[in-house]
Amino acid sequence: MIMPDWFQIRIRVTRDSMDAVANYLFELGSCGCQELENEIVAFFPNQVSKSEMKEEVEAYLDNLRDLGFKLATNHLEITEIADRDWNSEWKKSFKPIRISEKFIVKPTWEKLDSSSDTFVIEMDPKQAFGTGHHATTQIMVQFLERYLTSPKRILDVGTGTGILAIAAHKLNAGDIVAIDVDPVAVDAARENCQINSATSGLLLFAGEVSALSTYPFDLVLANLNKLVILRSLTLFNNLLNQRGHLILSGILVEESNEVKEAFLKLSDLELFEEVIKEEWIGFVLKKNP
Fold first, then answer.
1. Per-domain boundaries in the chain
2. For labelling, which of 42, 58, 195, 249 has a CA lying 20 to 30 Å from the CA of 18?
3. Would you say 61 and 76 are in contact if contact means Cβ atoms under 8 Å apart?
4. 165-221 confidence digits (pLDDT tens)
5. Under CATH, which number does the domain 6-90 receive?
6. Where do the DSSP E strands lie in 207-261?
7. pTM for the structure as a whole
């Protein structure tokens, strides 16, 4: 009997947990993920133990529930599949996309004629998240265009694939610090920064944002989720220069009132602007003296 070469894990997730789950699956050795409506499909070589994988993923999802994510039960399905040219599958699904007035994201193999006033970010689709297709990434880049009008000191919290740090570099930011708790994400971001010649003046490292407590920034970018943002809001505020801006997304519209209430508790932060795209909301807050 010939064994299939691959198996897939299909997981039902909430929108605000999708990036975290995809990131975890890559850490486990996934060759690629597809983000669908309310679910993720991840592909693994059949040399990996399916039973051990199922136990590890279920334990991780239980931890997410303990953190407050509302994940369904009977949420995980494993299926064996025939071999496929995974790179070809990605090339079919990952096409150039305009994510803002000034920015287009494209895969490295695509040829693209762009105008002189358009910035092109090239991404390697090893990862399904952070390629610019998600509404929250687009909100963040659109805000970045508006508020990065002169060289500033930038902090990108939870950099992922580095797309926001790369965009800031192309907009001629001053110093950029990009941080993520996941070293795998930092490696991906470093590779993408090299592809886009966005390395000068850009520091990438894996660790907690609390390690930067003595560094003031003009712009702090945080495309995370509600729970992390609420937990980190005071720290973000402390990292801002006077009259600096905090740009946030990763928050569902239905969660926005809870987040706004947290803003009100910090008297020196003023809600400056908000934008809704699909079911997601982004905020710009200004720090007043």
1. 6-90, 94-287
2. 195
3. yes
4. 999 999 999 999 999 988 878 888 999 999 999 999 999 999 988 888 667 999 999
5. 3.30.70.1170
6. 217-223, 240-252
7. 0.75
